[in-house]
Design brief:
The chain is built from 5 helices and 6 strands. With 184 residues, it is α/β, with parallel strands linked by helices. The protein has a single domain, classed as Leucine Aminopeptidase, subunit E, domain 1, CATH 3.40.220.10. Helix 3 runs parallel beside helix 4 and helix 4 packs across helix 5. The longest helix has 19 residues. The protein binds adenosine-5-diphosphoribose.
Length: 184
């Protein structure tokens, strides 16, 4: 059974898919890491657009685990879906559930907009310090579950920015595929 999930190592800002996901912070006003790369490549229009989005509480335009979709401006993709991953604090503050929600919230928005292909970076695995092996399992598990339920775009790409993260994603996908094939 082939999965509609691909794993690639690349700069997500170069992908021409329907939507790329940004590992943003709650202000949606940019930052470092993939957030910085996306804002640099999109041009100033994205920041101006985000600045006009309503604050749901002072300084917050997107809560952890939620997602917001915007145009992509000068990026080659059609949309950017901004989601805010959990900061890893040891695993006892619902970090795993919140990370899974980043994927499901982003996939729901993509389906709503009729997007047929979506690319995710390794949300929370950089500045937010989430353990890469566990994050990879959550990313693969959430995406495969929603794809099996036809609640996601046909094509999902999980993007690694280095071979170390790609290894974690490859292993998580292989283990999940073996589990769904059942005992050999
Ligand atoms: N393409 C793909 N992946 C990238 C890119 C890129 N151009 N740049 C970085 N990454 C990878 C990192 O290597 C990491 O694996 O994205 C993953 C997420 O790392 P961060 O960008 O640091 O995101 P996160 O850990 O979720 O922290 C978010 O950092 O940049 C700020 O504003 C952001 O406050 C927020 C926090």
């Amino acid at each position: 059974m082939s999965s509609g999930i691909d794993i690639i190592e690349c700069d997500i800002t170069r992908l021409e898919c329907g939507a790329i996901v940004n590992a943003a912070n709650r202000t949606l006003l940019g930052g470092g890491g993939v957030d910085g790369a996306i804002h640099r490549t999109s041009g100033p229009g994205l920041l101006e657009y985000c600045r006009r989005l309503p604050e749901i509480e002072p300084g917050v335009r997107c809560r952890t685990g939620d997602a917001v979709i915007t145009p992509a401006f000068s990026l080659p993709c059609e949309f950017v879906i901004h989601t805010v991953g959990p900061i890893w604090r040891g695993g006892y503050s619902s970090e795993e559930e919140l990370l899974a929600r980043c994927y499901s919230s982003s996939l729901a928005l993509a389906v709503e907009k009729g997007v047929t292909s979506i690319a995710f970076p390794a949300i929370s695995c950089g500045a937010y310090g989430f353990p890469a092996d566990r994050a990879a399992e959550i990313a693969v598990g959430t995406c495969m579950m929603l794809q099996e339920r036809r609640m996601s775009p046909e094509r999902i790409v999980l993007v690694a920015y280095d071979s170390w993260m790609e290894g974690h994603l490859d292993r998580a996908l292989r283990e999940r595929m073996n589990r769904s094939l059942g005992p050999s």
